[in-house]
Each structure stands twice: as C-alpha cells, then as structure tokens.
C-alpha cells in the first residue's frame, strides 16, 4: 500500500511549518522541511544557502533576470536543475515512508496517485495575523513586515505557478484549507491529524 | 453576544447544501437555503421562481444582457434590488439566531463582525465527483453534466465577484475549505460541527 503523506503549502507567517511539525509529532511520523533542503544539497553538490534561496523563493524562468542565470548545454538553468532534483527527492521520500512535507510544491509533485496517498493542506491567515507572527518568530528586521510578507508571498506564488501551472492558494487544489489566524494553530493541528 | 453563524459557499454538485443541512441537524440549529428564498419572495413581492433565477445564478450587471434589464428611476436593476433585499434578510437572520446559511454570498455579507461571529466554509470537489453527484441527486437532463456544471460554476463565480469584489473559491476568504469528493460528506460535516 502507498505511504500516506501530508503536504502542507502555506503563506509566509501563517504558522504552516509549526503546524506541520506538530502534526508529525502527534502522528509519530517525520516532518521534512529544512532536512529536505540539506538532503538536496548533498545530492546536488549545490551549497546549502544557494539551495534555500533558489528552491522556493526564487523568481522563476521567463523573467528578465533569468536571462543572466547560468545555463547548461541542455538549456536548463540552475533553478530548473534544482526543481528536478527536488522532485526526485520528494518522490523518493514518499515511496520510503509516511510523513509530513512542508512547502516545496510537494502537493503538485505527488499529485499522481502512484506516488503516494496524500492529504493536501493549505494554511493561510490574514495580513495582520501574519505580520504579528513573523515579528514574534523571526524578530524585527530593517524591512517592514508588510514588505517582507508581500515579497515572500509574491515569490512563492510565482514559483508555484511557474513549476506546477496552478494558482497558489486556489481552494480547488487542496483537500483542506485552513485559516490559522481565525482557527488557531492547535485547532489546525487537530483537524489535520484527524483527517490523516 | 453575537450569534454564531456558519456560512457555506459551495461549487454546484459538491454536496454543500446537504453538508449544511446535516451540520445544522447535528448542532440543533436552523439551516437557511430555499427557506431564505421564500422569505425574500414574501418581502419583495417578486415571484418565487424569478427570485431563484435572479438571486444567485443570474449574470450580473455590466454585461450586454444587463442593458435590457428593467431599471428603476434610481438606476437599480431588479437584480440590484434583490441583492439589497437579500443582504438585509441575511443580516436580520444573523441578528436573530445562530444558524447555517448556504450560498447567497452570506460569507461576504456577514464579514463585518458587528453582524455575527461567523465560520466561513467553502465546499468543492473535482469535476468527475460533481458530475456523478448531480446525476444522482438531480437526475439526468438533456443537457450533459459537463455543460450543467460549467454553466452554474460560471454564474455563481460571476455573481459572487460582482457583488462582493472577491474571487470565488480563493482559500484566503474562508476559515475552512474542504474537498467533499476526497474527504466525503460525513467527514466534512464532522469537521465543521467540531469547529463551531
């Protein structure tokens, strides 16, 4: 039988990563997030920080900046190579064990049922709640919360749309979408664990 | 204290109305749906069938067809009048009692917290599951399921967007979005009741 995977897509500052970890703890399964990045780094030979920047937040191909990106003989950019490496790793993990995977477009990558029996979750919250949370979790920076949120949202949405051909945050792509701002982190963890 | 209202927006054929009724039964509160239409009819003097057509499925203003719609001296079309009547009725209901309200843009109408403490739900399912369900629930018609679904989806989305200035089905507008096709009707009822 296929492993059971929970994929969590999340708006920046919505607490999606915390929810993913708590769900995994509750169910006694593993949560892949930074670990996944490190695993990617080892396999690809790319340095850790570059992968973190390039894997989910980078503005993808087709844009002006991309014209200056290093390309290989086969026409693939570093980002495209990272996408392929990431896709393979996520599929390997899904074939190996039941787990939670946060971000990384895992929902779209595991869509085909042959890879896994997955529960696709999207976590969001309104602007004010997320602004409050990023200051609490990541601390203040020189950049105002509003700009930090808008910037990350925009990059995640563009990355997701480019590589999956879907609209990020469209309810139709997920089994369950939850507002962590109105429901609270603990209730989100309860619902997801219960649906597993 | 404000009454507690569950608003259910739903794709046609997703079982949202059934879910709404079952949630209401489980919680011992009332579910407003066809009843609401009848109430509107009484108040406005419009005939029942006209209201059903005009209230949620009608293609709203700004379109060519609208140029031929009857208008009053104040520039309002029948549809605009219906929108105002509907808005007032939903607010009255929310002030009167805790309940479930299916459709009718109730989520957006009750947004301002002064009206109610509301849990905003969106129910969806993929095309195949909904096509299966509409044949089971409403029977076969001369019009193929695909056309029936696409037509209703388009009308509901256009109506919602016109009167609320929001994108229908965007996860960010709801506290919880559920895929009734993958989760099943009963699990949706459980989750919503539990969140109440």
Explained architecture:
- Chain A has 196 residues and is of the alpha/beta class.
- Chain A has one domain (4-195): Rossmann fold, CATH 3.40.50.
- In chain A, 53% of the residues lie in helices and 13% in strands.
- Chain A has 9 helices and 5 strands, in the order βαβαααβαβααβαα.
- Chain A has helices spanning 16-27, 34-44, 48-57, 78-96, 106-109, 127-138, 145-164, 180-183, 185-195; strands at residues 4-10, 30-32, 99-102, 117-124, 176-179.
- In chain A, strands 2-3-1-4-5 form a 5-stranded parallel beta sheet, sandwiched between helices.
- In chain A, α1 (16-27) crosses α9 (185-195), α2 packs across α3 (48-57) and α2 (34-44) crosses α4.
- Mean pLDDT of chain A is 82; it is low at 60-69.
- The A-B interface holds A 122, 124, 126, 169-172, 174-179, 182-183, 187, 191, 194-195 and B 122, 124, 126, 169-172, 174-179, 182-183, 187, 191, 194-195.
- Chains A, B: It holds the Pfam family Cytidylate_kin2.
- Chains A, B: It comes from Jingyaoa shaoxingensis.
Write a concise keyword list for the protein shown above.
homodimer, 196 residues, alpha/beta, Rossmann fold, 53% helix, P-loop_NTPase (chains A, B), Cytidylate kinase-like family protein (chains A, B)
| Individual helix count of chain A | 9
Strand order of the largest sheet of chain A: 2-3-1-4-5
Q: Indicate the percent of residues in helices of chain A.
A: 40-55%
Number of strands of chain A: 5
Radius of gyration over C-alpha positions of chain A, nearest whole angstrom: 17 Å
Shape of chain A: globular
Give the termini separation of chain A. 15 Å
Oligomer: homodimer
Instruction: Describe the sheet with the most strands of chain A.
Output: 5 strands, parallel
CATH homologous superfamily designation of chain A: P-loop containing nucleotide triphosphate hydrolases
CATH architecture of chain A: 3-Layer(aba) Sandwich
| Structural class assignment of chain A | alpha/beta
**H/E element string of chain A?**
EHEHHHEHEHHEHH
Q: State mean pLDDT of chain A (0 to 100 scale).
A: 82
Percent of residues in beta strands of chain A:
5-15%
The overall number of domains of chain A is 1
List unreliable stretches of 5+ residues of chain A: 60-69
CATH C-level class of chain A: Alpha Beta
Indicate the CATH topology of chain A: Rossmann fold
